[in-house]
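User: Sequence recovery, please. Input:
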């Protein structure tokens, strides 16, 4: 291909292993599980308390925040404590999605997912019955960091460039206590600890005394981050480039921007958005040999 003023360019080697997912904005803390109602208060048919709403994930730069999970209801199906809602996805420029429309050289990090909601407490049908606490919500996962590569002449990518959001990589919610007076709700998952983002289990039921509490919701996945490549000639033929959201989700993937004079490459499908901009006309009489 003709471009620039250099022949026989050498590739820029990308030999390091890809960075771990989730180097961007942090996720939200999971909501705490509901405390069971007092065993000695009220008469029969007493509903448990609702769980706590999960905390929204981090935003800023290119990322819209991930919404927190909905709290578990006081009663679910058949009188059991309601389960906490799943934490929302982190986003790139918008909440839980890909809303980037920029055409400049600016890229952003992906935002974190929201924490799962806490589970609702158990329900008691009799006076002086013990009641179980709801499970804590799982923490939201971190979004991806951003990557920028700029060269005066040539960028040739033959390896991998990853800026992917995390999934199943933050703190689990704690389990609720079975049949306490009242049962203690599980703590929300810590967004800065490493686990599987799972909601804790609600406290169990005791026959003819109380129904079980709700489980905590799972933490939301993080958004993908931005990737920027700029050179006179950019060659990504055969490269593995991905900035999807956690769990290979394209919905909240980041933006890939390539600014070039000449370009050659394959299909760029593992990204949330692609923006290509030609910055000049190739000079006649010069040839890049790949």
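Assistant: Recovered sequence (290 residues):
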């Amino acid at each position: 291909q003709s471009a620039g003023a250099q022949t026989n360019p050498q590739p820029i080697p990308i030999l390091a292993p890809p960075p771990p997912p989730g180097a961007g904005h942090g996720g939200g803390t999971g909501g705490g599980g509901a405390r069971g109602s007092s065993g000695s208060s009220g008469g029969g048919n007493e509903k448990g308390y609702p769980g706590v709403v999960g905390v929204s994930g981090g935003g800023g730069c290119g990322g819209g925040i991930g919404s927190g999970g909905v709290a578990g209801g006081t009663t679910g199906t058949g009188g059991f404590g309601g389960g906490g809602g799943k934490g929302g996805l982190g986003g790139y420029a918008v909440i839980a999605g890909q809303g980037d429309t920029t055409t400049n050289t600016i890229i952003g990090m992906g935002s974190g997912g929201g924490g799962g909601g806490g589970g609702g407490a158990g329900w008691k049908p009799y006076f002086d019955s013990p009641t179980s606490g709801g499970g804590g919500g799982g923490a939201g996962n971190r979004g991806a960091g951003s990557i920028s590569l700029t060269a005066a002449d040539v960028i040739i990518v033959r390896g991998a460039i990853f800026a992917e959001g995390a999934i199943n990589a933050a703190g689990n919610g704690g389990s609720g206590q079975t049949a306490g007076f009242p049962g203690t709700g599980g703590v929300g998952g810590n967004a800065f600890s490493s686990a599987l983002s799972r909601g804790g289990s609600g406290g169990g039921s005791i026959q003819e005394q109380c129904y079980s509490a709700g489980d905590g919701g799972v933490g939301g996945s993080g958004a993908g981050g931005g990737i920027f490549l700029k050179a006179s000639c950019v060659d990504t033929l055969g490269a593995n480039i991905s900035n999807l959201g956690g769990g290979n989700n394209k919905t909240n993937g980041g933006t890939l921007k390539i600014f070039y004079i000449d370009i050659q490459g394959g299909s760029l499908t593992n990204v949330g958005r692609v923006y290509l901009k030609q910055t000049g006309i190739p000079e006649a009489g010069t040839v890049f040999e790949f």
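Confidence is low (pLDDT under 50) at residues 1-18.
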